[in-house]
Amino acid sequence: APGAVASFINAARNRGLKFPKVRFLAPSGGELRLHVAGVMSKAPGAVQVLVDRAWVGRVNPDGEVIGRLATDRALIDTLERIAADPAEAARAYGALMGRCSFCNLQLTDAGSVAVGYGPVCARAFGLPHVPKGTPVVAMVA
């Protein structure tokens, strides 16, 4: 259920991240962006779902799905896959985009490139991360 992906994002908020946002690959190949609605929004605590910066719906805290998202089976399936294995979804995004799936910074450490997110975001989202250092190109004389 899409509510599981909401639980994943809200867990980061519970670990102290004020405004958790995540980016994954959309079924269309674009960017799927998820963020928690603030206290002043129409649906506080809901996970807002955007594809290529266009709002497609939200998942309310009770798991109810609102908007076009409710009838978009490919997108619902994608959210379910992300919830089942967020680390793999982040890896796929990072491999294609070269940026952290969570904070959107460029990935430089080999360990971060391998998993699709950096060590700070790994802690915030409760995911594994092993730093491997920044690769250096050797000069050939």
Could you please describe the fold and organization of this structure?
This protein is an alpha+beta fold. The protein has five helices and five strands; from the N terminus they run H-E-E-E-E-E-H-H-H-H.
Task: Give the strand tally.
Answer: 5
Distance between the termini: 57 Å
Mean pLDDT: 87
Helix content: 25-40%
- The topology string of helices and strands comes to HEEEEEHHHH
How much of the sequence lies in strands comes to: 15-25%
Q: How would you characterize the largest beta sheet?
A: 5 strands, antiparallel
**Structural class based on helices, strands and sheet pairing:** alpha+beta
Number of DSSP helices? 5
Shape: globular
Oligomer: single chain
Strand order, sheet with most strands: 1-2-3-4-5
Please summarize what this structure is.
This protein is 35% helix and 17% strand. With 141 residues, it is α+β, with helices and mostly antiparallel strands.
Structure characteristics:
single chain, 141 residues, alpha+beta, 5-stranded antiparallel β-sheet, 5 helices, 5 strands
Write the layout of secondary structure elements.
Elements: H1 3-14, E1 21-25, E2 31-36, E3 47-51, E4 54-59, E5 65-66, H2 73-84, H3 86-97, H4 110-115, H5 119-125
Helix pairs in contact: 1-2, 2-3
